[in-house]
């Protein structure tokens, strides 16, 4: 008894479809704010970190932005307490990326 026969036994009323499923793709717009985002450099436990804060939009949008930054720079990081924490000193690259997206940035520290 193969998998198809087992599925027919479990779900006798099911009619399998051979066509691909249609997936709706929604384009998400980020909230562009008036105040600049703060991009600062800190050392935490002796290791350099870049911290981005000052986003006025929703947390979900900020998490999406954090994921984009981490994947573009191929670095680790996290999102905590309304801040994006990136491992390493990448202020210049992050500021350039944010300015290309339409955000205002401000460099703080060092």
Structure description:
- This protein is of the alpha+beta class.
- It is 31% helix and 25% strand.
- The radius of gyration is 22 Å and the shape is elongated.
Helix-strand topology string: HEEHEEHE
Biggest beta sheet attributes: 5 strands, mixed
Strand order of the largest sheet: 3-4-2-1-5
User: Helicity, in percent?
Assistant: 25-40%
Total number of β-strand segments?
A: 5
Radius of gyration: 22 Å
Give a short summary of the structure.
The protein has helices at about 5-10, 60-75, 90-100; strands at about 35-45, 45-55, 75-80, 85, 105-110.
Short key terms for the protein model shown above:
single chain, 110 residues, alpha+beta, 5 strands, 25% strand, elongated
Outline the fold blueprint.
Blueprint: H1 3-10, E1 37-44, E2 47-53, H2 59-73, E3 77-80, E4 83-87, H3 91-101, E5 105-108
Parallel strand pairs: 1-5
Antiparallel strand pairs: 1-2, 2-4, 3-4
